[in-house]
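Mods, move this if it's the wrong board.
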Amino acid sequence: MIALIDINGRPFYLNCNMIETLESIPETKVSLTNGKYFLVSNSCEDIIEKVILYNRMVFGAEKQLNIKIGDQDQSAKDECLLSEKKRGVE
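Not the wrong board. Structure tokens:
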């Protein structure tokens, strides 16, 4: 869930997996897959950033890799890091 601010200034949380479209009209209209929508003061860019951060947290793209110096599998771990960087995972 992501935190948004409605057009009256009240915060609420939205299940971002339900977002279908975002539209600036000039406030932001968040349309959901069930046909409902919300008018919010957050920008489209802000909402997209929140969704990306949420998905990184949930799906583990922010995982930390622990590499021990002197470990026998160091070269294998280095290859893993290189392949993740090529895919854009940091």
